[in-house]
Amino acid sequence: MISQWRLRAAFAARLSEMYGREVPAYNTLVDVSREVNEDTLRAQGADAERLGSIGRVTAERHGAIRVGTPDELRQVALIFGALGMRPVGFYDLREAAASAVPVVSTAFRPVDADELARNPFRVFTSLLTPADPRFFDADLRSRLETFLAGRELFPPELLALAERAEAERGLPDDQAERFLHLAVQAFELSAEPIDRAWYQELETVSAVAADIGGVRSTHINHLTPRVLDIDELYRRMTDRGIEMIDTIQGPPGWKGPDLLLRQTSFRALAEPRALRLADGSVTRGALRVRFGEVEARGIALTPAGRALYDRLLTLVDDEAVRRPAADRTEVARALWAAHVPATERELAAQELAYFTYRAAPERPRNGTQPPTTIGELEARGWVVAEPVVYEDFLPRSAAGIFQSNLSGAGSRDTGQVGAAYDSDWLSGAIDREVLDPFALYAHQQSLSITRVGRELGLDITHPAQH
Ligand code: OOG
Ligand code: NI
């Protein structure tokens, strides 16, 4: 029997192999990431592993896929469910992007700390929103929905195996092999000719809509390695002559702890695709949709910490309007230095970030009365704090990643009111609860405090959940 986490690790590795064959520049990104990670580890020693062991970080990837209907998303949820991955978080890219990005998204990932440590593979998964009249008029919507209803992304054999793997928490060897083969195949770029007129019609609305609804299959859009020093990676890729997008999305590089998530990418590459013309003939064309992305992960923030992050982003925007010539990164760095605590201890004290706690190996001597708050226990050497890694995504960064790789801005009818989608809607559509990332982090923190309290025989006051 192959367990779910082994299936997940094998799927991630095979997908990576397949994507490297399809998009060789991805291999360069993986190679440079590995070099940067090795150099960082050499330079920083154990500090470099504060947010994950080098083993985990080297193997770590996230993928991105895009589907067209709730039914397709339900099938995706089943396939990832087989791999022990659950839907976490709701991202509305329609609002976060300036260009037309008519999708709402979630991320499938493992949720338990030990499962994340075994293999943290996650997939950012976007669902097209044909019901949003800002992007699709009634006629286009109906043709689009008919087109989507007539395609099959995942063969029934794959779904049956997925169902079995999820129910039995694994698969026997031969079935595991078959499942992995079919699952990877489902995300390969299809050679089937694309109806050029249909693709182009959707492209005038949104390049993302064309990528999703203009073809009869799905494909992996990018696969993202994790790097310990993203500024260094950006420099090295640029030195190799690879054209990167203008910025690193997310928090600026600064002197304090790494927070949340920083991401950057190289521009989508032209890939040969077969196109069917109106007269039925097939010609070779090229489409730019797939790119390479890389990310650095930091500490998970509480709702208060996240609100601070969002507020600082707004301040950076305001400042950019006031001083258009100023360097955005410098502006962000200055704001960070002024508003964000520069140590883990202060982040914890202000309840801006999540930590787990364990009993210190050497505690104050007998007879010393221990304090009762977790902050005091940490400060006085009774417990040791470890930062919780941010396992999720950021809507604004995701929008930036989408946007910088679109061929055109598309169009949007701002006179229309957008169709409403939210986390509950998504849960209903796929018949699985879309989990709240904050609740997962808070639970992990609180569990560790309860445990350490039991170990030390103390009734510890937990930080407030806000
Ligand atoms: C997804 C873009 C978002 C990320 O890492 O934020 C994303 C897509 O292009 O389909 O992958
Ligand atoms: Ni991504």
Instruction: List the total number of helices.
Output: 19
| Shape category | globular
Under the CATH scheme, the architecture of the largest domain is Roll
* CATH fold-level assignment of the largest domain: 2,3-Dihydroxybiphenyl 1,2-Dioxygenase, domain 1
Query: What is the straight-line distance between the termini?
Result: 42 Å
Total strands: the figure is: 12
Low-confidence stretches: none
Chemical compounds bound to the protein: 2-oxoadipic acid, nickel (II) ion
Quaternary status of these chains?
single chain
Q: CATH homologous superfamily of the largest domain - what is it?
A: Uncharacterised protein PF07063, DUF1338
Number of domains: 2
| CATH uppermost class of the largest domain | Alpha Beta
Notes on the protein architecture:
The protein is built from 19 helices and twelve strands. With 466 residues, it is of the alpha+beta class. It has a five-stranded mixed beta sheet with strand order 3-4-5-2-8. Strands 7-9-10 form a three-stranded mixed beta sheet, with helices on both faces. A two-stranded antiparallel sheet has the order 1-6. The two termini are 42 Å apart. The structure holds 2-oxoadipic acid and nickel (II) ion. 2-oxoadipic acid (OOG) is lined by residues 64, 66, 124, 126, 221, 263, 293, 393, 397-398, 401-402.
